[in-house]
Amino acid sequence: MRLTEFHPGHLFWMPRGATWLNRDKPRPFVLATRCRTGGRGTLIYGSTRNTEARMGAASVQVGPQPAGVNRNGLRERTHFYPGILVRDRCEVLPSHSGSVGRYLEALRIALYRALGIGKGSCLSPGAPAGSRRGRIVRLKGRLAVAMRTPFAVLLTEAWYSREQHYHAILPLVSGAGESVGPHVLRVEARGWMAVFPQPPRSVFLPISVVHSVWYDRDIAHETDQVLDDATLTEIDQRLCAYFSLPYDAPEG
After folding, report:
1. Which CATH architecture has domain 5-114?
2. HSE of 96, CA atoms in CB hemisphere, 13 A
3. Are 127 and 133 within 8 A, CB to CB?
4. CA nearest 204: which of 233, 181, 230, 223?
5. What is the dihedral of CA 169, 133, 149, 192, to 10 degrees?
6. Is the whole model's pTM more than 0.90, yes or no?
7. CA neighbor of 133 nearest in space, from 147, 149, 119, 150
8. What is the CATH number of domain 135-243?
C-alpha cells in the first residue's frame, strides 16, 4: 500500500517526463525532506553518469541493494547530486522503491556542502575567482512568472557555481510587511534591494522553495548585487532547519 507520508532517504523512480530533470527517461530521486499528503517535498537528482561530479559538484554514489532492510530499487551504481534539487507534491510521487539507508548521512553532509552553507558569498575572503554564490540574478520569463518575482539568489557552493550548469536558487519576493510562514525569511533595509526598480519595504525568501535550474535555460543575466553576509547566514541557518541539518557557525 502506498504511504501517505514519506521521509528523507526514501527513493523514487520518477516516470519519464515527471520533472524537467527526467524528460528523457525514468530516473531515481531521493527525498531530502519529509513529505506529507497535501504538501511538497524536495528531492535529490540521481544519475548513473559522473559528469557533474567531474566538474566539482558534490555527490554520493549509491550501489544497488535488491533485498533486505536496505533495499533501494536501484539497477546500477548511481551518483546522487544534492545540489541538484527539484520540488514536487506528495500526491504525485510514485510508490517508493526503497531507501538509501546508510547513505543518508553522507547525502546530508553532501547537501550541506553543495549549498555552500557557512561559506559566505562570492565576495567573501577566500572565495574562488568566478564564484557566483550569493549573486542575485534575473530569471527568464516563464520561471519569473512561476516564482512571482524576476529575481533570485544563487546558493550553489563556490567552486561548482563557477560552471554555467545546474544552480540552486532561492526567489527574492518583494512585499510590504505581510506575515510570513515558518520557512519564510523576511528582510528589510538591505543595500542589494536596489536591484528592484522600486526598492521594496521588505523582501521575502521562501526557504522551502529552494530548487535547481539550468543556467542558460533559466537565468537571463547576473546583476551587480550580492546578498550581504548577515542575510546569507540567516538563509544558511534556515536551510539547515528545513533539511534537518546541523548548523556549524562559520568562524570569525
Report:
1. Roll (2.30)
2. 21
3. yes
4. 181
5. 160
6. yes
7. 119
8. 2.30.30
Where residue 126 falls (left for φ over 0; alpha for ψ -120 to 50; beta otherwise) is left
Q: Are 44 and 57 in contact (CB under 8 A)?
A: no
Question: Is there a contact between 20 and 86 (Cβ–Cβ < 8 Å)?
Answer: yes
Q: Give pLDDT, residue 155.
A: 98
How far does Cα 66 stand from its chain's mean position?
29
Q: How far apart are CA 75 and CA 49, in angstroms?
A: 13
Can you give the length of the chain in residues?
A: 252
Paired strand residues for 78: 62
Q: What residues does CATH 2.30.30.110 cover in the chain?
A: 5-114
Mean pLDDT, the chain cut into blocks of 10 residues (252 residues total): 84 95 95 91 97 96 90 95 96 93 95 96 95 98 95 97 97 79 89 93 95 98 97 96 83 43
Shortest CA distance to 167 belongs to which of 218, 233, 230? 218
Q: List 5's β-bridge partners, or say none.
A: 36
3-state secondary structure the chain: CCCCEECCCEEEEECCCCCHHHCCCCEEEEECCCEECCCEEEEEEEECCCHHHHCCCCCEEECCCCCCCCCCCCCCCEEEEEEEEEEEEHHHCCCCCEECHHHHHHHHHHHHHHCCCCCCCCCCCCCCCCCCCCEEEEECHHHHHHHCCCEEEECCCCCHHHCCCEEEEEECEEECCCCCCCCEEEEECCHHHHHCCCCCCEEEEEHHHCEEEEHHHHEEEEEEEECCHHHHHHHHHHHHHHHCCCCCCCCC
